[in-house]
Amino acid sequence: MSRPTIEITRTEEFSASHRLHNPAFSDERNREVFGICNNPNGHGHNYELEVTVRGEVPADTGMVMNLTDLMRILRESVVAKLDHKHLNHDVDFLADQIPTAENIAIAIWSQLAPEIAHHGARLQRVRLLESRANRVDYYGPSSLSSPAQEEVCHE
C-alpha cells in the first residue's frame, strides 16, 4: 500500500550583496539592462530562502524528512556560504554567473538536491525572496511542466 505524500518547507534567511553585471556587455549596455543594480560597488538584500521537500510519510518515523536535518543542511550547504558575502566574489558555486535571483535559486538547488536525496526525500522547490516584492521559484532542471516561475524586477 502506498504511503501518503507530503511536502514540508523550511525557511532560512541570509544577507548578501551583489552586482548585476555581464562582462561581455559594454558599460552602457550593462546600465541599460541592469539599471541601478549595476552599481560598481554592488548593493545588498536581506534574502529569505524557502526550501520545500517532498516524499512519502514512512510509518516508522512519520516524517518525510527530519526537519532538524533539513535545517542543518540549509545552514551548512547554503546559508553559511552566502550570508554576509558578496555573491560576485565570495561564493564558489556562483562563480562566473550573474547573481540574479534566478541564478542564485538554481545554484542553491544544485547545492541541496544531492544532500536531500541522501535523506530519502526529493527537493521540490527552491523559493528565493529577494525583497518583499520580488521572488523566484525554481522546481528543478526538469521543471518545464511545473508551475510557472515568477519573473522578478531587480530593484
Note down, in words, how this protein is organized.
With 155 residues, the chain is of the alpha+beta class. It contains three helices and five strands. It has helices spanning 27-34, 67-82, 101-118, and strands at 5-18, 43-56, 85-86, 122-129, 135-138. A five-stranded mixed β-sheet has the order 3-1-2-4-5. Helix 2 (67-82) packs antiparallel against helix 3 (101-118). Residues 145-155 have low confidence and may be disordered.
In short:
The chain has 155 residues and is an alpha+beta fold.
Helices and strands in order:
Layout: E1 5-18, H1 27-34, E2 43-56, H2 67-82, E3 85-86, H3 101-118, E4 122-129, E5 135-138
Parallel strand pairs: 1-3
Antiparallel strand pairs: 1-2, 2-4, 4-5
Q: Number of helical runs?
A: 3
- What is the straight-line distance between the termini? 50 Å
Estimated radius of gyration: 17 Å
Low-confidence regions: 145-155
**What value does the average pLDDT take?**
92
N-to-C series of helices and strands: EHEHEHEE
Tell me the fraction of residues in β-strands, as a range: 25-35%
Label the overall shape.
elongated
Keywords:
3 helices; five-stranded mixed sheet; disordered C terminus; alpha+beta; 155 residues
